[in-house]
Automatic annotation (TrEMBL), chain A:
This is Glutamine ABC transporter ATP-binding protein. Belongs to the ABC transporter superfamily. GO terms for molecular function: ABC-type amino acid transporter activity; ATP binding; ATP hydrolysis activity. The keyword Zinc does not apply. GO terms for cellular component: plasma membrane. The gene is glnQ. The lineage of its organism: Bacteria, Pseudomonadati, Pseudomonadota, Alphaproteobacteria, Hyphomicrobiales. InterPro entries: AAA+_ATPase (IPR003593), ABC_ATPase_HisP-typ (IPR030679), ABC_transporter-like_ATP-bd (IPR003439), ABC_transporter-like_CS (IPR017871), MetN_ABC_transporter-like (IPR050086), P-loop_NTPase (IPR027417). Involved in beta-(1-->2)glucan export. Transmembrane domains (TMD) form a pore in the inner membrane and the ATP-binding domain (NBD) is responsible for energy generation. It is found in: Cell membrane. Residues 2-236 form the ABC transporter domain. PANTHER family: AMINO ACID IMPORT ATP-BINDING PROTEIN, L-CYSTINE IMPORT ATP-BINDING PROTEIN TCYN.
UniProtKB/TrEMBL annotation, chain B:
It comes from the Bacteria. The keyword Transport applies. It comes from Bradyrhizobium jicamae. Its main location: membrane. The keyword Chloroplast does not apply. Residues 19-207 form the ABC transmembrane type-1 domain. The chain crosses the membrane at residues 20-42, 54-75, 81-102, 136-157, 188-207. It is found in: Cell inner membrane; Cell membrane. PANTHER family: L-CYSTINE TRANSPORT SYSTEM PERMEASE PROTEIN TCYL, MEMBRANE COMPONENT OF AMINO ACID ABC TRANSPORTER. Belongs to the binding-protein-dependent transport system permease family. HisMQ subfamily. GO terms for cellular component: ATP-binding cassette (ABC) transporter complex. It is a multi-pass membrane protein. GO terms for biological process: amino acid transport. This is Amino acid ABC transporter permease.
Length: 243, 217
């Protein structure tokens, strides 16, 4: 469904992606792990055109991702994004955040969008927060609204860019359980994360990225339990046993 | 003091004619400068090199010319190029253009103060540039922009008196005409000053209100 083939990307003189080739099948949950600055987030941002890439190809259901082409709008409505810092619109209520895309981008009738928006908020456990503005919500609640906003676009896949990294530890669980439910329902997901437990339990596949290349990839349990590469082993040791 | 009250009763009706023109000039140029300022600011942040360069150049040229010279140019020079304006039109146009530069810089600062994540979130749900501005960036920027905008309103009210230099009989010019024909300088100019102050006070309170609101999150 999402294909990356030999993708290169530089910021100025720094090459952050050095030939990434990967694919994500429909219904698959792929976790991307790796040290900070390894290019994990950049991959997600290239997939929905928030960043351009210098060479190679990224396609979503066969359509090439080009952030300057008009086709990018249709790709973005098919591939939603959830951000590390939530990026909810603070001047709109939770419910208005959720229906913003359906009503103003996809031109759905407002009444239908409202009804679906409320159902989505209920799905992430926030039915009673529909009329609340984001600054009055906790980080975990904001992130769940952001997930509802992504779902409201009825996307074929959702990209999660470190969705729990900005949260207090006790709020991480609520967000992860919403994500797990999505995965169980068959949503295609690409998740950049430091939550190794989530990756092990939920992901079908794990990509370990370091220095702009995919060092190792495979079924989640084999990459996380029996990593083959020294760099993967070293990274996992430091993440799982920081002391 | 007694003579001041007598003069007030005598001159106030004439000065009120000036107040009407002062308000027309202020509101007219405020609307024009807001519209132009918004256009310059959006050009500036458009990310399109030509537009943003053009806007930066325009703003610098406008900022570098005194308002009074701009007014003279519009009223006395433009007729030579076939564009004849009434004094009132020239005043509104001149003040509107002059203040558009400050409005633009104010709007730009407000737009640039909005977190980049907001723009990315808007793009990620498929919004284009204009929709992102209209639905996401500008509604948030308004809160930041309003206090300085209120100050511009006060400055414009006072600078509308410059229209007197091209014969717009607004408050300052009315005052000057009465004073020079009656020699009652003290009464007339005290009255004129008080009338400007009276018009400014609601605006000053409005700015304070904006500032309080911008302070709340």
């Amino acid at each position: 469904m999402i294909e990356l083939s030999n993708v290169h990307k530089s910021f100025g003189k720094v090459e952050v992606l050095k030939g990434i080739t990967a694919s994500v099948e429909k219904g698959e949950v792929v976790c991307i792990i790796g040290p900070s600055g390894s290019g994990k987030s950049t991959i997600l941002r290239c997939i929905n055109g928030l960043e351009s890439y210098d060479s190679g190809d990224i396609t979503v259901e066969g359509a090439r991702v080009d952030r300057n082409a008009p086709s990018i709008v249709s790709i973005r409505t098919q591939v939603s994004m959830v951000f590390q810092r939530f990026n909810l619109f603070p001047h709109r209520t939770a419910l208005e955040n959720v229906i913003e895309g359906p009503v103003y981008v996809k031109k759905e009738p407002r009444a239908a969008a409202l009804e679906r928006g409320r159902a989505l908020l209920a799905q992430v456990g926030l039915a009673e927060k529909a009329e609340v503005h984001p600054p009055q919500l906790s980080g975990g609640q904001q992130q769940r609204v952001a997930i509802a906003r992504a779902l409201a676009m009825q996307p074929k896949a959702i990209l999660f860019d470190e969705p729990t990294s900005a949260l207090d530890p006790e709020l991480v669980g609520d967000v992860l359980s919403v994500m797990r439910k999505l995965a169980d329902d068959g949503m295609t997901m690409v998740v950049v994360t430091h939550e190794m437990g989530f990756a092990r339990d939920v992901a079908d596949r794990v990509l370990f990225i370091d220095g702009g290349v995919i060092v190792e990839q495979g079924p989640a349990k084999s990459v996380l339990n029996q990593p083959q590469h020294a760099r993967t082993q070293d990274f996992l040791r430091r993440v799982l046993h920081p002391l | 003091m007694q003579s001041f009250w007598r003069d007030t009763i005598e001159f106030l009706p004439i000065l009120m004619n000036g107040v009407a023109l002062t308000i027309i000039v202020t509101i007219g140029s405020l609307l024009l400068s807001t519209l132009l300022g918004l256009i310059w600011a959006l050009m500036r942040v458009s990310g399109i090199g030509v537009l943003s360069g053009l806007s930066a150049g325009l703003i610098n040229v406008i900022r570098g010319i005194p308002i009074i010279v701009l007014l003279f140019y519009l009223y006395f020079v433009m007729p030579e190029f076939g564009l004849t304006l009434t004094a009132l039109q020239a005043a509104i146009l001149g003040l509107g253009i002059a203040y558009s530069a400050y409005q633009a810089e104010n709007f730009r600062a407000g737009i640039e103060a909005i977190d980049k994540g907001q723009v990315e979130a808007a793009q990620a749900i498929g919004m284009g540039w204009w929709q992102t501005m209209r639905r996401v960036v500008l509604p948030q920027a308004i809160k930041i922009v309003l206090p300085p905008y209120g100050n511009v309103m006060i400055m414009m009210l006072k600078d509308s008196s410059q229209a007197s230099t091209i014969t717009v009989a607004e408050l300052a010019l009315q005052g000057k005409l009465i004073a020079s024909s009656t020699f009652k300088n003290t009464s007339v100019f005290t009255l004129v000053a008080l009338m400007y102050l009276t018009m400014s006070i609601p605006l000053i309170l409005l700015v304070r209100h904006f500032e309080k609101r911008a302070g709340q999150k």
